[in-house]
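--- STAGE predict ---
source: upstream dedup step, 1 unique chain passed
mode: sequence only
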Amino acid sequence: MYCVPFRAFGHENVLGKHKTTVEITSEDFLTREGTCIVGIRATQTLAGLDSTIRELAALKTTEIVLVMEVNGVIEQVTGTGGPGLTYTDPVSMVARTSSYQCGRTLMIHADKAASDLGKDFIGRLKDRRAVMNCELHFINQ
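--- STAGE serialize ---
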């Protein structure tokens, strides 16, 4: 198992309403159209992950888990890897409930979208000062 810790931060426009994706971005702004984005100014991007993790992500047998914590409230999104997960995007990572794969895709077949995350968790992320401590886990069965 590989674990990659990183941080992201809240923003007043975090809505958590998207029904098929959860996104974390390294950008420092968020419009109200970004309904899947739950954190900005991320300290880790997909393009910044090492080759061992990229190889694991490209396997259908790899379980990928995103653990997010803000002010003691924890949410977890679990999905799988896939051959189209290239991890080339230098800006954002997207957990998808679908099987769509591109350079921005962190995981496919995710068990949660932004709209599935708890209201308390999303509420805490509506503050620019909120720090979201994250971990990415890559587990090859």
